[in-house]
Amino acid sequence: MKIFKSYTYVLLFTCLGFFSCQDSIIEDLPTPSGNFLLNLVAINNDVDEGAGWKEYMITETNLGIHQIDFLKNDSAFTAFQDQYQYELISRKSFPELNFTNLPVNTYDKVTISMDNHLDSDESVEINGHYTPSSPTKIDFYFKTNEELFLTHTLEEDLVITDDKSFQFEIAFHLKKIFDQVTFNELEKTTIEEELENGQIVSKDIILIDKENNMGTYQFILSEFQKSFQTRLVVEQPRT
């Protein structure tokens, strides 16, 4: 199914305004040193504009990205290769995912490899809060240090020509994954937390990792690796 036929995906760009208010962010940047700009974004649980109370919300998603390749007939070109630490919600990367040169070709797949080079020695971290009833909130933390290799067939072929610049987007559909998590059935861990006034209080949190809530950990890990969608945001003549 093409991405523009997805109601959720259209809402994402309408409600969050990633690109709804302007055709391109290319013209807002310094003169590019390449022909290809890649954005990674998250489809979070706030795309339903009319909804009030939400059972959960993802507040931070850190990815330890090592390499991103674009492929045609199993012949790959490496677009990005470094120890990237990318935060999906704010779309901040260190080092920066900047313009690169993608050779003239027609690409039909993209692969993303991740490893445990985040500051926490994890490869993926997804944090947020679960709200069983207002105003009660329980923080949850998913983490894995697994090496991941994600492969995705593009919704439409990416045709790179030598006379244009391209802006491309990969969206991780976190909402599709976490809508299926039964938070009320997950085991909680009690920790002690110091308040600003120095008082120590007990606090329940939800840990989702190799040692806690193992079934949910395996489900999220599996779904995450096939959760993303792609689209060409804009192509425009090179100046």
UniProtKB/TrEMBL annotation:
PROSITE patterns: PROKAR_LIPOPROTEIN
Name of the protein described by the UniProt record: DUF4249 family protein
Species: Flammeovirga yaeyamensis
Superkingdom in the source lineage: Bacteria
